[in-house]
Specification:
heterodimer, A: 604 residues, alpha+beta, Aldehyde Ferredoxin Oxidoreductase,  A, domain 1, Aldehyde Ferredoxin Oxidoreductase Protein, subunit A, domain 2, Aldehyde Ferredoxin Oxidoreductase Protein, subunit A, domain 3, 6-stranded mixed β-sheet, 25 helices, 39% helix, 13% strand, globular, B: 95 residues, Ubiquitin-like (UB roll), 5-stranded mixed β-sheet, two-stranded antiparallel ribbon
Chain lengths: 604, 95
């Protein structure tokens, strides 16, 4: 395969069964880079705004970046993009593993799925060959069974599978897409959209590696950055040694480890469930890396019960642990395995359960509503595992849980107990202890999310420099830069974790060496800004009110009750006006005509 | 008179040390001196380098005194008092 500047689209219409190839203009790759940017651009050209996320009108896009499938370190990422059934805003979920790189090797940069198949199907892509095949025999089965069966049936060595589990089929609003058994395009319900289309799986097998514009230059740049990643103490030692779970104690000691539905920021049993415990208890067997990854942060684990799998990672371990008050590392790991098998987003699963537990303990959910299920008490391992299973099947009280925390809490007239932003559950950092992260949550284009602007890096970890987590001054600028750079990294096809060691100049060198586009640093960062504004404009088209740039009342009004952050709330009002101003948005958070014009978005 | 010390991450795995107390001497001690003392323990040798070379910019050791990063206090010159807790993490990231 020679170097390709145009984004090659494979369009599969499930309603008609038609499959065709097309290309996006050069201008699209130049302005939106690829991956997250190009996929969102395409989505914006297809949706008017009011379409139901679970209707055939909502496309599902698998989008790789220009560096996906190359030798670039961590260059194996893809994004799943559509309108979210959880937030009714842009859904844009990133995943690693091997699937994205293999998709690229088939000669497709972007897979566009439209319509709805009359019966369950899977898509087989093998280089030029693209076929829809019956999948009724896989419907109802978990992700591991589906993956193993497809590989066996096809007998295609090296084929990679992305699929949904029962949760996606049952339209659980936070169902994920699982690829390579253990990796997830996790958030915002992209798996439910796949399920609504009767698409069980996508199988890819390719043989053509993407070629850079200048191979010698590209390989030199790659080698240097791999070395940087290997020599950096975080990406070379910290993450390989304990994975992301090194954070449990850091965030807990900092007093920002959300516990029992964000009622406090200190979990008294962190020592029982932390990354160190996973090693000390002997559950961690080895590390595993995604495609072309020198960091290898994934945890291969085995429990004394004999169960095997991957995880828990930091977010999952927290959502199924401290967030629900569970201190039993075996139950947490089992629930994590279940989420992967059933195709549930671990964060939304845990936080929805946490919300239900608070509703139950406050007497708002009655025992008789649980239809014989265990009491929804904080700390109950039994409830954790039982309801994780139930929600994937929408069985019993699981039907209520499958709607996510905000819809659940609203149905009991207690929306303030949903720890969600714009309808998506918050991740594992209580922003009362990290002000900039609070602004990042409030303004994230996909709602509660830590990977749109990870302010934990400077505010807690001291990367690239240490900021005072309780200061608000200057945070708007940091949030903007992090959001824009993250959009660039996601659009290139690399993993965000590289940014613990690499800076904007490194991404620029990699991007230019591969594509020959000759971006300046300013131009590249403007691409990130353009992508951010495109998502914002699209969200407004979807009906988002800028008033939703806020946080759950608890985080704004209830002072942290104990620990190092005692007495603190998030001072969002001190940061949000600055942020709007820096973004070139009006005081209501709407991008001005001038800003959209400057970014070339006035026609979108 | 004691200061609580907690060791985390790969440092804990390397040293086998988790939580212990050190003497607060006159009631307070400079953080740098505490790190120098801890650096003589097996598995914690890198703390000696932190004490002498300082907290690197970029990907620093994270050292909290009662949950507050020492860089928001007086850095390695922070005075740690009797009854306070020090939490020590090697450079870390995740998400």
């Amino acid at each position: 395969m020679g170097f390709s500047e145009k984004i090659r689209v494979l369009h599969v219409d499930l309603s008609s069964g038609q499959i065709k190839r097309q290309e996006l203009d050069d201008e699209v790759s130049r302005k939106f880079i690829g991956g997250r940017g190009a996929g969102t651009y395409l989505l914006a050209t297809m949706l008017k705004g009011q379409e139901d996320a679970l209707s055939p009108e909502n496309p599902l896009i698998f989008s790789t970046g220009p560096l996906t499938g190359t030798a670039a370190p961590t260059g194996g990422r893809y994004m799943a993009i559509c309108k979210s059934p959880l937030t009714n805003l842009v859904a844009c979920s990133n995943s690693g593993g091997q699937f994205g790189a293999e998709l690229k090797r088939t000669g497709t940069d972007l897979l566009l799925i439209t319509g709805k198949a009359p019966e369950p199907v899977y898509l087989l892509l093998a280089d030029e060959k693209a076929e829809l095949r019956p999948a009724s025999h896989l419907w109802g089965r978990d992700t591991h069974f589906t993956t193993a069966t497809l590989k066996e049936e096809l007998g295609m060595k090296g084929a990679k599978v992305a699929c949904i589990g029962p949760a996606g089929e049952n339209l659980v609003r936070f169902a994920c897409i699982i690829n390579d058994l253990h990796r997830a395009a996790g958030r915002s319900g992209v798996g439910a959209v796949m399920g609504s289309k009767n698409l069980k799986a996508v199988v890819v097998k390719g043989s053509s590696r993407p070629e850079p514009r200048d191979n010698e230059l590209f390989m030199d740049v790659v080698k240097e950055r791999v070395k940087t990643l290997q020599e950096n103490p975080v990406t070379g030692q910290g993450l390989p040694s304990l994975g992301t779970k090194v954070l449990d104690n850091i965030i807990n000691e900092h007093g920002a480890y959300p516990t029992r539905n964000f009622q406090t920021g200190v979990f008294e049993s962190t020592d029982e469930v932390c990354g160190e415990a996973l090693v000390e208890k002997g559950y961690l067997k080895k590390n595993r890396g995604c495609y072309a990854c020198p960091i290898k942060c994934a945890r291969v684990t085995e429990l004394p019960t004999g169960a095997k799998g991957e995880g828990p990672e930091y977010e999952s371990g927290w959502a199924l642990g401290a967030a629900v008050g569970v201190k039993d590392l075996i139950a947490i790991t089992e629930a994590n395995y279940l989420c992967n098998l059933l195709g549930l987003d671990t964060i939304s699963c845990g936080l929805t359960l946490a919300c239900a537990m608070e509703l139950f303990e406050k007497g708002i959910i009655k025992r008789e509503e649980l239809q014989g299920g265990p009491a929804l008490e904080f700390g109950s391992s039994e409830a954790l595992v039982f309801y994780t299973q139930k929600m994937a099947y929408r069985d019993g009280f699981g039907k209520n849980l499958a709607e996510g925390s905000l819809r659940l809490a609203k149905s009991y007239n207690a929306p303030e107990l949903a720890m969600a932003v714009k309808g998506q559950e918050l991740p594992a950092y209580d922003p009362r202890g990290v002000q900039g992260q609070g602004l990042s949550y409030a303004t994230s284009n996909r709602g509660g999310c830590h990977v749109r602007g990870y302010l934990i890096a400077p505010e807690v970890l001291g990367i690239p420099e240490k900021l005072d987590p309780q200061a608000t001054e200057g945070k708007a600028q940091w949030v903007k830069v992090f959001q824009d750079l993250t959009a660039v990294i996601d659009s290139m096809g690399m993993c965000l974790f590289t940014s613990f060691a690499l800076g904007a100049e490194d991404y620029l060198a990699l991007l230019n060496a591969f594509t020959g586009r000759g971006y300046t640093l300013e131009e590249m960062m403007e691409c990130g800004e353009r992508i951010w504004n495109l998502e914002r404009a699209l969200n407004i088209r979807f009906g988002m009110s800028p008033e939703s740039d806020t946080l759950p009342e608890r985080l704004l009004k209830e002072p942290m009750p104990e620990g190092p952050q005692k007495g603190n709330t998030v001072r969002l009002g001190e940061m949000l006006p600055d942020y709007y101003k820096l973004r070139g948005w009006d005081e209501n958070g709407v991008p001005s005509g001038e800003t959209l014009k400057r970014l070339g978005l006035d026609q979108v | 008179m004691a200061i609580d010390v907690r060791i985390f991450g790969p440092l804990r795995l390397d040293s086998g040390l988790k939580a212990f107390s050190i003497d607060a001497l006159e009631g307070q001690r400079r953080l740098r001196d505490i790190l120098l003392e801890l650096g003589s323990l097996k598995g914690l040798e890198t703390l000696r380098a932190v004490a002498t070379e300082g907290l690197e910019k970029g990907a620093p050791f994270i050292i909290l005194v009662d949950g507050k990063n020492c860089m928001q206090l007086k850095g390695l010159d922070t005075l740690v008092k009797d009854g306070q807790r020090i939490s020590i993490f090697p450079p870390s990231g995740g998400g």
